[in-house]
Every structure is written in C-alpha cells, then in structure tokens.
Specification:
The complex is a heterodimer of chains A (403) and B (287). In chain A, 44% of the residues lie in helices and 13% in strands. Chain A has 403 residues and is an alpha/beta fold. Chain A has a seven-stranded mixed β-sheet, with helices on both faces. A four-stranded antiparallel β-sheet of chain A has the order 9-10-13-12. Chain A has a two-stranded parallel ribbon with strand order 1-11. Classes of the chains: A alpha/beta (403), B alpha+beta (287).
Amino acid sequence: MSVPARNVYLDNNATTSVAPEVLEAMLPFFKDLYGNASSMHLFGGQVARHLDIARSQVAALLNAQPEEIVFTSCGTESDNHAIRGVCEALPDKRHIITTKVEHPAVLNVCRYLAKKGYRVTELGVDKQGNLNLDELKAAITPDTAIVTVMAANNETGTLFPIDEIARICAEKGVTFHTDAVQAAGKIALDMQKMPVSLLSISGHKLHAPKGIGVLYIRRGTRISPFMLGGHQERNRRAGTENAPYIVGLGKACEVAMNAMFEENNRLRKQRDRLEKGLFDAIPYAHINGNPQWRLPNTTNIGFEFIEGEAILLHLSAAGIAASSGSACTSGSLEPSHVLMAMQVPFTYAHGSVRFSLSRYTTDEEIDHTLATLPAIVAKLRAMSPFYADKLREIKAGETAAHS
Amino acid sequence: MWNYTNSVIDHFTNPRNVGEIADANAVGQVGSLACGDALKLYLKIDPTNEIILDAKFQTFGCASAIASASALTEMVKGKTVKEALAVTNDDIARFLGGLPEQKMHCSVMGKEALEAAIANYRGEKAVAHVEEDSSVICKCFWVTEKKIRQVIEENHLTTVEQVTNYTKAGGGCGGCLPDIKRILDEMVLARVTGSGKPASEGAAPKKLTNIQRMQLITKVIETEIAPHLQADGGGIELIDIDGVTVTVRLQGACSHCVSSTATLQFMVQETLRRKVSPDIVVIQHQE
C-alpha cells in the first residue's frame, strides 16, 4: 500500500497518543530521577514524593482518597486483580455476576473461574446494548462474591448506569467492580457519589503511555493481593513502582480532569457531525449501541451489505485509521461478541466500523473522513451480491406500485 | 493487520471483472450474510467448445475474499470447463502469491463458486449449500462432512486448526471440533495405511518372532504415528510391549481431554493392526 497522504487517527478506543505534557513530565525519571521510591536516601525520596503527587492526581480524577489508588501494569492486570483478588478473599462465596459484553480482560477471567468451579452469571443486553437492572438484582444471591460490570463499552461506547448498579450492590452487601478503562477521563467518575468498591483504569486510553494502569480499591474492600513480593503499594501490589509511567499517568489524569467538560462538548459535536454526515451520504447505515447514553467520542456504525475489513483497508489506504467488529478483522470467524450479544443483524454486523475520537481530533480529520468514506461504501456495495438483490427488490416494488 | 501480498492488495484495490453478465449461462453463488462472506460467479460459456468466454463476480467479504474472486475470474477466462474444474483453491492462493493461513477459506469459497456455476451450466440441480447426501458437521457455518473431507484431501491438511482456516468449520461455537478431529484422524489414518485398505507393501508377515514384532511396532510408531501426532501438537511414547499388548503414553493436543486420547488410542491401535498384526491391543499407560 502506498504511504497515505495524511493521517487521520480515529481509533482512540484502541489506544491514544501520549500527550506532550505527559511525555515531558515523564522524561526526568528516565534521566536524573532514577531512584527506587522505597530507598532510604535522597534518590528514593525525590521519586517517592512525585509518586505521591501522581497518586493524588489520579485520586482527584475519581474524587477518591490517594490511599485508595493502586498502580498496576495495565487495565488487564487491574481487572484480574479485582476479580481474582475478591474471590480469593471471600473463599466461601462461589458466584460471579458479569455481562456478555465485557472486555476479554474481564470475560476471560470470569470464564477461567467458571472452569475452576465458580458459578458465573453473564447478563445479556438488549438491542441497544442496555442492561436490565431487575435481572441484575434478581441474579444477586448470598453466594455472590463479586459483580463486575464495565462503565462504558469499548466497541459501542454504550454507558452502563454504574452509579445505580453500585447502589444495588451496596444495598445487598456485594462487592462491585467496574472496568472503567474506556470511561476514565471521558466521563465523570465520582467515588464519593458512586459506592463502587473497585475500579480499573488503563493509562494508554487517556493519553498516558501503554504499560500503566490503576486499580481503585475503596477503603474496607476485602481483596487479596495479586502480585506477591515486596511491600509496595501498601502491600497490595508488589513490584518496584514504575515511576516514569506513574508520573505520566498522574499528569494525564490531571489534564483530562481539567479538559473534560470542554472536551466532551467538542468531541460530541465532532462525533455527531461525523455521524450525521455519514448518514446523510450513505443509506442503509445504523448506529450500534445506545445513541443517547454513550461516550461522546465513540460511534459504531453498521453498513449493510458490505464487510468491515474491506472498509478498513480502503480507509487505511486513504490515511484513515478506524476499527471494526467484523469477523475478518478480529482473526476469528464470527463478528464481535458485543454485537452478537446485542443481536445486531448479520446484514450489518459484519459491516460495522467504530470511529473513536480524542482530544487531538481536528475538524479537518472529520471532513476528510466524510469526503472519503461514502465512495468506499459505494465501491464495495457495487460489487456486493446482496446490494444487487436489494436494488432488484426496490425496483420490483416500484414496478408493482406503478402497475 | 494481516500480512497481505502486494498481489492481494492489488486485486483488492482494483478488482478485475466485477459485475454481472446479463446473458451468463452459468451462475453459482456460495456463502451468506451470516457467514460473513459470499461470492456470486457469472460465466459465459461457448456451448460448442465449452470455452469460458467471460467471467464476472459479485462478492461480500474481506480483502482476501475480494482478491480471491478477482483472481479466480482472471484464471478461468479462456479455459475450457474441464480445465477450469481442475483449478484448486491452492491454485487461487498461489496466483495471489499466497494468503494468510486463516484466510485460506476465501480461496476455498472461490473454488466452491466455480463448481456451483459449472453445475448450473450443466443443468445439474442447483447445488444447494448443503448436499443432501452429506451431514452437516459445523452448524455455525453450515459446513458438510463432504466439504471437510474434500478440503482435507485436496490440501493434505493434518490439523483441526487448518480445517477451520480452510473451511471455517469449528470457527464458531467450536462444538464440532471433536467431529472434525474424528474425520481428520480417520483420513490421516487412511493416508498412512494406504487408502484405508490393509497395506500390501510392508504388510505384516504371517508369522513374526517376538523380536521382529517388537521392532516393527517400534518402527511404525516412530516413523508413521508419532509424526502425525506431533503435527497436531500431541505425542506418543512407547512404554512396553508384552506379546500383542502395546502400552503407550498418549498426549493429545489438549492432554487432559479424555475423548481426544480415546480417539488417539483407537487410531494407534488401528494403524498397528494393519501394519503389524491384526490382534494388537493398545492400552494407555496408567500413571
């Protein structure tokens, strides 16, 4: 493929670029500030002080206490720690509740525990990807160790009402974990208002680098450590603190918190403009997910009669990066488990494309996408036997109407 | 991102022969929206000499599906029907400089559409997705036993994963993977022992001494059975030979799977019975 003339990055739910101020904050910790935060000397002390600042910055984003922030290596570790740590701390409870649309970092942990003898309830979703909270309530039993439900879906952006779910769990005295990897930095997460027990964050989804995550652990939550070793992170997560990355994540949280309100409004406008422009230009297209309750930066659109990988490769050739829930892009043979759980019809499940915007998305990028995608869809539909069938069907209908 | 060859990218970006042929006398369609890919092939065949004058296609699918269809039309144009039928899915893949292993089913779809179109030309009953005389093994992608056997045979497949890559069978819920394994083992066994009939060459002499029998058993396991199991991620270890009782330690691709080792045990026993002596009994070593 030729080198694209321009680069339009609309795949920010996959990963984001590191913010310049984040990189700048990190650099000294690769040079002069290389001490081990646990050491009893100046080198260690300097670093420890910066870790405290970073911990406070993360806590501020969540309106939590700094002692409730545990740094991990990634979102997946945070999810593993939360679910397996709670199950280990509550050995008599053998039931887990989750949803069919979780990220594999949650779903595969639950399925692993199911193999180990746990009873796992995977709650389904409706066609817009919404949960039925009555079903959730009814599923909780005295045997339930943990309820784990994501805050925002990575594929569709659909938001779950985690404040309500947290209250339901709190009333029943059940530990509640939320994978907030896509939500953190994009929507307000207030731990004073939401009785969430555990919450996972991944740095690289909010303009910090890959390789850093957070597990928020509400004070009083019963949970066993996941990584064993030294006494770091108040004995909750062993391993020498990854100082540059922790500092970077702290900075990223601070920037996100300050920018969130304004950024959300701008992203929602850009996203809605992209959506409207595409719908105006392309018939037989559908939003996957809840059009109202979703992340402001995400849209997932299903294009009928065509296949996602083909769309992505044409977009990529035009310098535009997006992603798809089609079978072919995942390397598996079935469309995404999220779209399948939502019972998205096959007519457009295979042709679904996710665009996810970020702080750095420009209006020009949206323009370029709007100028490019309709022709790609038209080109692929022109060679689709199902689109040809559809056109014949329409023609037959018109003929019948006129006779 | 897939590692596509330049030729795949070229045929994907600029597909040849897209469209319908209004006066086509051979049309074949395979696949469906649910499967995630589909191909409709139109051929115009000269009835006097059976030469394919024109070929066009419509497809719903990924880059390699589009490229495979484009390649297929280029390959069959100008060929006689007989020559076209000799084109294999591997020929399509090679025409494109190769396809990623997980995408081989796209080339198989091309071959299927070609067969369907030619059957249509010959006035044979429209080849339905499912042949009546063959049972459906994979219910997610509606793949028949006949199709699986054909693809294993033509492409000399040795692992279940390959069968999934080439036919999609087993790529959905995975419920049919043991069935695919059974078919594969049976066919590999037939391949090893010569078309499923007792092998004439190297067949067991009427009377073997104990030493001869032990040597022959060891040789068959080492040269014929072990390589097949290793190709599958499994293994076999000869523990003991006592008369006609052969004790082995078997390791399937997933060693804790009871049904898988039972299948292996049967396959080892059948091979030894054909190659060494019909009264061989294979038992698994108890730890």
